[in-house]
Each structure stands twice: as C-alpha cells, then as structure tokens.
Write a structure and sequence with these properties.
By secondary structure, the chain is of the alpha+beta class. It contains 7 helices and 16 strands.
C-alpha cells in the first residue's frame, strides 16, 4: 500500500524506486532505535500541492537529530525542495510524507558518525478514520521527560505507542490514551488530546507530551476564532467529566471521541467545538480560511 511499480523515493542523495533502496544491517537505528523521523501531509489546493507547515516539520526533524547527536547536513530549505520534487515525480498532491534520518553502522552506544536520509510519500487517508473513537486508558505511561527528549520524534520512542495501541486494539477499542508519570492526561498513542468543558477547551501543557504541529495549529485557530483554550494539566477523572473530546495529529488530522473506558461523552459531535475546529482545520490546510465557518455549530 505504500508504493507502486511507478513510485519514487529520495534515498541517500538520489531518487529511485523503493525496491532499489538498501540499508545497513549494523545500523544503530535498527538495533537501538536511534533515528529521527517526521510525519507530514501535502494537500491539493487551488494553488497546487501545498505541504502543510513543511518548514516547521523539518525544523523538528533537525532538532531531533541535534539532541540525539545524529549528523544532518541538509538545510530546512533543501529538505522542503526535495519534498516538492518528490511529490512532482510521484504525480501526487494529496499525500502523506515520511522523512526518516537513520544512523550508520555502530554497535556501541555512542551515536554513529554518519547518517542516511530517506523521504517517501504515498496516498493515505486519515490515520484514525472519520468515525468517533472508542478509547481505552492504557496501563502504559508516556515516557518520563527526564529519561529522553519527549518532543523529538525518535524512532525508538514509538515502541511505547505500539504497546499501548496493541493493548487497546486487543481489548476491542480503537485507540489508547496514555497518562504521564504524575497521573495526568498526556496524549494518545500517536496524537494530542483536547477536551471541551462548558464551552472552553483544555489540552495538556508541554513538558510530558509530543507538542504536535497540528496541536499548535488548532490552538492558533482557537485564538483567531475567539474560542477559549487553556494549556494545563488535568486528570483522567476530569477528562471523564468533559462534554466532548478530540485528538489532533498530522496523520489523524482532527478526530472526535465517542467514549473513554466506560464514559460516553454527552455532547453530540456535531454540536462540539471539536467539530467546528475539524472543519476550520481542513480549510486551513487547503488555504481556504478566508471562508469562515461561523455557523458550524
């Protein structure tokens, strides 16, 4: 599903078919999870293909490489140019884009001195779908920020997400919600969380979460639209008293929650702030925000 006979990727300085690419069996990324990646989306707009917040994503990729000591000789502008070239070569406008920077051969625990960049793209719908989600509180916690750089997208960090997702799916749920080390709500396995209570939105503050680019976009839209939003800690018990809730992420975009464990959110999705923001976000990525949805709810 990720490539066809005509697909092209960027790999180690060249454009090629995915099956022509090769990796190193002694890569530190393979053995220890020391690599960094990004999830980015491009949209078909009236101006052509538009990679949403491309610079912000590549700045985060370079931040991850920096904190992990992984060499990255590409500038943000070069990475953005490669991405647009790749979309053109694949004749794609609506696409999911996955850059990954992997480390070279090194079996020690000191970061390898070389790295290799691959950028891939393919057509991919909303990661969590369009239906409202049944969510389970996970027994796994979000990693302690004193144990790693939680705001960097490090490949090895996502074993935590795999564990929580597997647990939720096996129990018959759609997604998992993780708490932080202090018992406060953190995020789901691959997206940020917002809750609505009495006409105001709340989202966990930075420090224990992956502060997503979609999350920051939603906060910006709220401020522009006059929707009150607070970045603050809140507990699972407080979330289970909310009127409504939703997840945000590049792959998921904006998706509503039907329930959390045995709690059903009482406000209908169509009457919620999340529903309004889902539509405003779609306008934002399609460069159509001049048309306000003032009657969305």
């Amino acid at each position: 599903m990720y490539y066809t006979k005509d697909s092209i990727i960027y790999h180690n300085g060249a454009y090629m078919h995915p099956e022509k690419a090769s990796g190193n069996l002694y890569s530190q990324a393979l053995h220890y999870g020391n690599g960094v990646f990004e999830g980015i989306r491009s949209y078909k707009t009236k101006f052509g293909a538009k990679v949403f917040k491309a610079a912000e994503h590549y700045e985060r990729l370079k931040y991850g490489a920096q904190v992990m000591g992984i060499p990255c000789d590409y500038t943000v502008d070069e990475l953005v140019d490669i991405t647009y070239n790749l979309l053109e070569k694949n004749n794609l406008q609506d696409a999911y884009i996955r850059p990954i920077l992997v480390t070279g051969a090194n079996m020690s625990l000191l970061t390898a001195e070389e790295s290799f960049l691959t950028i891939q793209c393919w057509e991919w719908g909303k990661y969590m779908g369009d239906k409202l989600l049944k969510v389970k509180t996970s027994r796994f916690q979000r990693p302690n920020p004193k144990s790693c750089f939680v705001e960097a997208k490090i490949t090895g960090h996502y074993t935590n997400s795999i564990l929580s997702t597997n647990e939720a799916k096996k129990a018959g749920y759609d997604e998992a919600l993780l708490l932080d080390m202090n018992g406060n709500v953190a995020e789901c396995s691959g997206a940020n969380v917002f809750m609505e209570k009495e006409g105001k939105l709340y989202t966990p503050k930075r420090g224990h979460i992956m502060a997503g680019i979609t999350r920051s976009t939603i906060i910006e839209i709220c401020k522009e639209e006059g929707i009150p939003v607070a970045e603050t800690h809140f507990t699972l018990e407080e979330l289970k008293q909310a009127d409504s809730a939703f997840f945000t992420g590049t792959a998921a975009e904006v998706v509503g929650l039907a329930s959390l464990d045995d709690y059903t959110f009482p406000l209908s999705w169509e009457a919620s702030l999340g529903y309004k923001l889902m539509q405003l976000y779609k306008q934002e990525v399609l460069c159509e925000r001049s048309q306000k949805l003032s009657e969305a709810i």
